[in-house]
C-alpha cells in the first residue's frame, strides 16, 4: 500500500490489535482548535488529544522548531547527549523545584522511572523493608505492569498475572486513610493533584499538605504525577505550584511536547544520585527532535500571558457548562482546575458518557470522558473565544438532542450546579 492509497476506519479493525475502539471518523488535518476529517467535515476540538495538544494543532512555533531540528540531527542514542536535551533540561530546572531531569517518551515511562527511583532510594537509605508505595484508588499512572499496579484500578491490572506487590491503595482526599497507610515501610506516596481519568476530581490542599508532612516524617518521597495537570493545564506551569506543596519527584508528559512524544521525570540532585549509570535508561529518551519541540512548547506556555489566559478561559468554560447544565439537565456539577474540566452527568445520563461523546461528535465537537459519568474537557490552552463559543453552541445542541431523545424536559430549578475554582 503506497502512502497515497486510500485507507478508512474499517482498515483499523482489519489491521490493528483491538486494544482501542476509535471513533468512526479519521482526522486528517488540524489547525488551532479545529480538525477536519477525511470527508472535509470540520470539528471543534475540546479534547486536545487527551490534554496533549496544549497549543492546538500545527502551532507555527512548534512546526518551525521541528523542521529546523529535522534538518540537523534526529537521533544519537543515550551514548551521547545533545544540545536540545540540555537546553530543555536547563529550562525545566530553572522553572521548577528540580535540579535533575530524566527524559523518556511517555507518561508511563516517566512514572516507571519515578517509582523505580523511589524504591531504590528506600532500599539504599533504609533497607529492603522500605519498598511500599501508597497510592490513590481510581488513579491512573500508565499502562506498564508497574504503573497499572500502582494505579488503584483493577480493570487495568487484571488479566496479566500477579500485580507488582508492596502497593497500598487509599481513598483520594481521605487524610485519615492516608495516615493509616503510611509507615516506616513506605518509600513513596504517589498522587495526581487532580484525579484525571476517574472524574476530574481536584485534590484538597490539606490532603496534599498532609501527604508532604507524612513523607517528611517517614523518610518517604512525595511523587506527583503531573502528566495531565502539568505544563500550564491548571493555570500555573505545574499544579504543585498552584497548591503550594512541593514534591520530591514530579513526572510530566502529554502537553510537554505539544503533540510530539516526550516525557520527563524531575527531581532533586540528592535523589537523582540513586539512579547511577546503567540503573535505568531509554533508547529514545532525550531525542533531539522531541526536545527541540518541547523547548518551543515550554517557551510559550511558561509566560504570564498564557498562564493568565488559562485562568480566564476556565471561567468562560465553567460558566457555559453550568448554563447548559441548568437549561438541559445534562450536567449536575462542573469541577476541575484551569482547562482540565469535568461535567458530571445528571441523573438521566449516569453511565452514558460514551453516548454523550458520540452525540457531541455528531454535532461537530470532540470531547472526552472521565469514567462513565463525567465528560472531560482538555482543550488547547490558547483556544480563542470564537472557538470556545462555537464549541459550546455545538455542545448545547448535543445536550438538547439528548434531552429530547430521552423524552423528558428538565426543570432547571431542580438541578444543583456547583464548581471548583
From TrEMBL:
What's the EC number here?
2.6.1.11
Spell out the subcellular localization from the entry: Cytoplasm
Entry keyword Ribonucleoprotein: no
Give the protein's cofactors: pyridoxal 5'-phosphate
For the protein in the UniProt heading, the enzyme class is transferase
Binding-site positions, N(2)-acetyl-L-ornithine: 143, 282
Q: Return the similarity comment.
A: Belongs to the class-III pyridoxal-phosphate-dependent aminotransferase family. ArgD subfamily.
Key words, A-Z: Amino-acid biosynthesis, Aminotransferase, Arginine biosynthesis, Cytoplasm, Pyridoxal phosphate, Transferase
Family matches, as Pfam families: Aminotran_3
Please give the name of this protein.
Answer: Acetylornithine aminotransferase
Q: Show the GO cellular component annotation of the record.
A: cytoplasm
Q: Which GO terms describe its molecular function?
A: diaminobutyrate-2-oxoglutarate transaminase activity; identical protein binding; N2-acetyl-L-ornithine:2-oxoglutarate 5-aminotransferase activity; pyridoxal phosphate binding
Q: Which organism is it from?
A: Thauera aromatica K172
| UniProt pathway annotation | Amino-acid biosynthesis; L-arginine biosynthesis; N(2)-acetyl-L-ornithine from L-glutamate: step 4/4; Amine and polyamine biosynthesis; ectoine biosynthesis; L-ectoine from L-aspartate 4-semialdehyde: step 1/3
Subunit structure and binding partners: Homodimer.
| Cofactor binding notes | Binds 1 pyridoxal phosphate per subunit.
Q: Please list the reactions this protein catalyses.
A: N(2)-acetyl-L-ornithine + 2-oxoglutarate = N-acetyl-L-glutamate 5-semialdehyde + L-glutamate
One further remark on this entry is:
May also have succinyldiaminopimelate aminotransferase activity, thus carrying out the corresponding step in lysine biosynthesis.
- Residues with the N6-(pyridoxal phosphate)lysine modification: 254
Where does the chain bind pyridoxal 5'-phosphate?
Answer: 107-108, 140, 225-228, 283
Q: Name one GO biological process term.
A: L-arginine biosynthetic process
Amino acid at each position: 500500500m503506497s502512502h497515497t492509497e486510500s485507507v478508512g476506519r474499517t482498515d483499523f479493525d482489519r489491521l490493528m490489535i483491538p486494544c482501542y475502539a476509535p471513533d468512526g471518523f479519521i482526522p486528517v488535518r488540524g489547525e488551532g482548535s479545529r480538525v477536519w476529517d477525511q470527508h472535509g467535515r470540520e470539528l471543534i476540538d475540546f479534547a486536545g488529544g487527551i490534554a496533549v495538544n496544549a497549543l492546538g494543532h500545527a502551532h507555527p512555533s512548534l512546526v518551525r522548531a521541528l523542521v529546523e531540528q529535522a534538518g540537523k540531527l534526529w537521533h544519537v542514542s543515550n551514548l551521547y547527549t545533545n544540545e536540545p536535551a540540555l537546553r530543555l533540561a536547563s529550562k525545566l530546572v530553572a522553572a521548577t523545584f528540580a535540579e535533575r531531569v530524566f527524559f523518556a517518551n511517555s507518561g508511563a515511562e516517566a512514572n516507571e522511572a519515578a517509582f523505580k527511583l523511589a524504591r531504590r532510594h528506600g532500599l539504599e537509605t533504609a533497607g529492603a523493608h522500605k519498598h511500599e508505595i501508597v497510592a490513590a484508588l481510581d488513579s491512573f499512572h500508565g499502562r506498564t505492569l508497574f504503573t497499572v499496579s500502582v494505579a488503584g484500578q483493577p480493570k487495568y491490572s487484571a488479566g496479566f498475572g500477579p500485580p507488582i506487590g508492596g502497593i497500598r491503595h487509599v481513598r483520594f482526599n481521605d487524610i485519615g486513610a492516608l495516615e493509616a497507610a503510611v509507615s516506616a515501610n513506605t518509600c513513596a506516596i504517589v498522587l495526581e493533584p487532580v484525579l484525571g481519568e476517574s472524574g476530574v476530581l481536584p485534590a484538597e490542599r490539606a490532603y496534599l499538605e498532609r501527604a508532604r508532612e507524612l513523607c517528611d516524617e517517614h523518610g518517604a518521597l512525595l511523587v506527583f504525577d503531573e502528566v495531565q495537570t502539568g505544563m500550564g493545564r491548571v493555570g500555573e506551569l505545574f499544579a504543585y505550584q498552584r497548591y503550594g506543596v512541593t514534591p520530591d519527584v514530579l513526572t510530566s508528559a502529554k502537553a510537554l511536547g505539544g503533540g510530539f512524544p516526550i516525557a520527563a521525570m524531575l527531581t532533586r540532585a540528592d535523589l537523582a544520585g540513586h539512579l547511577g549509570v546503567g540503573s535505568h535508561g531509554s533508547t529514545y529518551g532525550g531525542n533531539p527532535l522531541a526536545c527541540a519541540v518541547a523547548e518551543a512548547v515550554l517557551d510559550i506556555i511558561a509566560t504570564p500571558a498564557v498562564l493568565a489566559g488559562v485562568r480566564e478561559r476556565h471561567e468562560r468554560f465553567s460558566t457555559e457548562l453550568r448554563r447548559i447544565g441548568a437549561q438541559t439537565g445534562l450536567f449536575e456539577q462542573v469541577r476541575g482546575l484551569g482547562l482540565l474540566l469535568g461535567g458530571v452527568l445528571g441523573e438521566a445520563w449516569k453511565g452514558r458518557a460514551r453516548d454523550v461523546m458520540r452525540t457531541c461528535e455528531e454535532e461537530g465537537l470532540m470531547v472526552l470522558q472521565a469514567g462513565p459519568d463525567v465528560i472531560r474537557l482538555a482543550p488547547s490552552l490558547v483556544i480563542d473565544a470564537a472557538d470556545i463559543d462555537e464549541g459550546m453552541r455545538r455542545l448545547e445542541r448535543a445536550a438538547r438532542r439528548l434531552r429530547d431523545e430521552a423524552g423528558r424536559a428538565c426543570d432547571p430549578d431542580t438541578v444543583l450546579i456547583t464548581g471548583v475554582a
